[in-house]
Design brief:
alpha+beta; 5-stranded antiparallel sheet; single chain; 182 residues; 23% helix; 5-stranded mixed sheet
């Protein structure tokens, strides 16, 4: 039996960065932007709030860009505080590197298995698709989706009852498939 599982984001991930006000290391993005124009030059920031003290920090999106070189639809989305744009920007590795931040996807995703009719099957083939580039341990996904413990999933990998074309240790954020034989 072939199944499709989807890893979907449920909210924006936490932003890991040191707070200058209280030394906390976590911020949350609420999808708000600040755009500032100085003559023909434009600056834009994504605002994030410290989870401990509520202080606001700015993540640079645009810096000293000529107004004419910015796509009007991008500007409209920033002025409209588009949460979808905030999610797109947080996933952008260039923005994360420039602002020296990391993301914590801890409780910001869920696994949709399409039901639990696979639990009694002898052999299941599963295709796991990621709706966003969320780094998750495949062992955790398989354990959650099949109702197993992580140790049991590790044992199945060692026995050869759980096989995949990709390495199942570490983290993945791209689509993969696996076969489980019980």
């Amino acid at each position: 039996m072939f199944e499709n599982w989807v890893v979907m984001p449920t909210c924006l991930p936490a932003v890991l960065r040191r707070c200058p006000a209280c030394s906390s290391g976590r911020f949350r993005a609420n999808g708000k932007f600040r755009v500032n124009a100085n003559h023909k030059l434009l600056d834009a920031w994504l605002l994030v709030l410290c989870t401990a003290c509520g202080d606001t920090a700015k993540l640079t999106v645009l810096e000293r860009m000529n107004v004419r070189s910015v796509r009007p639809e991008l500007l409209d989305r920033m002025h409209g505080n588009d949460p979808g744009l905030a999610a797109e920007l947080l996933l952008d590795p260039v923005l994360r590197r420039r602002n020296r931040i990391a993301l914590d996807w801890g409780d910001a995703w869920r696994l949709d298995t399409g039901g639990s009719d696979h639990l009694d099957q002898e052999v299941i083939d599963v295709s796991v698709r990621f709706a966003a580039r969320i780094p998750v341990r495949p062992v955790r996904l398989i354990a959650e989706g099949c109702g197993l413990s992580r140790a049991e999933v590790g044992r199945l990998i060692t026995e050869g009852s759980l096989v995949s074309a990709v390495r199942l240790s570490g983290r993945l954020s791209g689509d993969f498939t696996f076969t489980l034989k019980r």
